[in-house]
UniProtKB/TrEMBL annotation:
This is Sulfotransferase. Keywords: Transferase. InterPro entries: P-loop_NTPase, Sulfotransferase_dom. SUPFAM superfamilies: P-loop containing nucleoside triphosphate hydrolases. Belongs to the sulfotransferase 1 family. Pfam families: Sulfotransfer_1. Its EC number is 2.8.2.-. The lineage of its organism: Eukaryota, Viridiplantae, Streptophyta, Embryophyta, Tracheophyta. One of its GO terms (molecular function) is sulfotransferase activity.
Length: 334
C-alpha cells in the first residue's frame, strides 16, 4: 500500500523514491506518525525521518564506500547546519579558495550544495562528491543519528582517519527554528500550529528526533573518542567564533599556520560565513535546494534565545524539564 504523503512533497525526488516498490514495502513496516516539517514521519532505528531522508539513510548504510579521510558534519535539523557547513567548506578549502577571494564558491553556492547531506544523494552520486582539494576527503552533511551511520564510520577499528563533527543548539531555539521552517518550507499541505508542533517535538517526533537521543549519541562518542568526534555548540560558535574555528581546524589536523594567522584568515572565514553576509547573497535569498526548498528558508534570525519571543513560560519549562531528565547523568547540559 502506498503511504499517504502531502501533495507539495510529491516532487520528482520523492516520486522516484515512491516508485521503488521495494522501499515502499519497507516503509509501510515502520511506525508512522504525523510530522512537523513534512506531513508524515517514519521511525527507523529509534529515530523519526521523512521518507526522503529515510530512503537516503538506508541507501547510505548499504552503498557507502569509505575514503580514507572522509568527514561527516552531523546535526539535528535547525542546529546551525547551514552555518557550520559554510565554515567547514571555507576552512578545508582555504588554500584553493582564500576566504577573501571575490569568486569564492560560497558567494555563489549555498553551503548545502557544497557540502551535500548524504540523505539527498543517490548512491551513484557519492563518488562524485568533490568538495575538498584532497581526493581522499569528501565532506558529507547528515541529520542521521550516530547509531544509524555505517560501521565504517562509527567503529574506531574500521574508521581510519574519518572524522565526525557534531553541532548542537539550545533545544528551545532548535524547536522554534524547526517550527518556523515547517511553515516556510512548503513541505506540508497546511501550516502546523505552535501547539501541535510543540506536542510532537516533546514526544520526540521531529526530523531526526528524539532530539535528546540524537545529541546524546554524539555526545557520548565525543567523550569516548575525542580524536574522532568533535562536539560543538551553536551558542559557543556565536560567543567565541575564533576559538571554535581554531578548535575545529586543530581537530581536523589542519591548524592555522602563523602565516595564516598573520593574514587574519580566521577573521576572514568568520566574516565570510556570518549570517549578515550569507543571508544577503542572491543565491541564499532566491535559490532552491535539492528538495526544492527555497534557500531563504534556511536564514531567519540566526540569534541565540529567540525562543523567549515565542514560547510561553509553561512551554519553556516543559522543554527544560525534559532536557534535564534526558541528560541527567550524561555530564551534558544545554
Ligand atoms: P537545516 O537543518 O535545515 O540545515 P540549519 O542551518 O541547521 O537548518 O538551521 C537554520 C538556523 O540556522 C536558522 O536559525 P533561526 O531559525 O533561529 O534563525 C538560521 O537563521 C540559522 N543560520 C543560518 N545561517 C546562519 C549563520 N551564518 N550564522 C548563524 N546562524 C545561521
Amino acid at each position: 500500500m502506498e503511504p499517504k504523503l502531502s501533495p507539495p512533497l510529491a516532487h520528482e525526488h520523492l516520486k522516484d523514491i515512491l516508485s521503488n516498490e521495494e522501499f515502499v514495502d519497507i516503509l509501510t513496516t515502520f511506525p508512522k506518525e504525523r510530522g512537523i516539517i513534512s506531513s508524515y514521519s517514519y521511525q527507523y532505528q529509534g529515530f523519526w525521518h521523512n521518507p526522503v531522508h529515510l530512503h537516503g539513510i538506508i541507501n547510505f548504510q548499504k552503498h557507502y564506500e569509505p575514503r580514507e579521510n572522509d568527514i561527516f558534519l552531523a546535526t539535528a535539523p535547525k542546529s546551525g547546519t547551514t552555518w557550520l557547513r559554510a565554515i567547514l567548506y571555507a576552512l578545508i578549502n582555504r588554500k584553493t579558495y582564500p576566504p577573501n577571494d571575490p569568486n569564492h564558491p560560497l558567494l555563489s553556492k549555498n553551503s548545502h550544495s557544497l557540502i551535500p547531506p548524504f540523505e539527498l544523494l543517490k548512491p551513484s552520486e557519492y563518488d562524485s562528491v568533490c568538495n575538498s582539494s584532497d581526493p581522499s576527503t569528501r565532506i558529507f552533511g547528515t541529520h542521521c543519528a550516530f547509531g544509524s551511520l555505517p560501521e565504517s564510520i562509527t567503529d574506531i577499528a574500521k574508521s581510519s582517519n574519518r572524522k565526525i563533527i557534531y553541532l548542537c543548539r539550545d533545544i528551545k531555539d532548535t524547536f522554534i527554528s524547526n517550527f518556523h521552517f515547517a511553515n516556510k518550507a512548503n513541505l506540508r499541505p497546511s501550516p502546523i500550529s505552535l501547539e501541535d508542533a510543540f506536542d510532537l517535538y516533546c514526544k520526540g517526533i521531529s526530523a531526526g528526533g528524539p532530539i535528546w537521543n540524537h545529541i546524546l549519541g554524539y555526545w557520548k562518542e565525543s567523550l569516548e573518542k575525542p580524536d574522532k568526534v568533535l562536539f560543538m555548540r551553536y551558542e559557543e560558535m556565536k560567543s567565541e567564533p575564533h576559538f571554535q574555528l581554531r578548535r575545529l581546524a586543530h581537530f581536523l589536523g589542519k591548524p592555522f599556520s602563523q602565516e595564516e594567522e598573520n593574514l587574519c584568515l580566521v577573521d576572514q572565514i568568520i566574516s565570510l560565513c556570518s549570517f549578515d553576509v550569507m543571508s544577503k547573497l542572491e543565491v541564499n535569498k532566491t535559490g532552491k535546494g535539492k528538495q526544492l526548498i527555497s534557500t531563504g528558508a534556511l536564514f531567519r534570525k540566526g540569534v541565540v534565545g529567540d525562543w523567549k519571543n515565542i514560547l510561553t513560560a509553561d512551554m519553556a519549562s516543559r522543554l527544560d524539564q525534559i532536557t534535564e531528565e534526558k541528560f541527567r547523568g550524561s555530564g551534558l547540559s544545554l
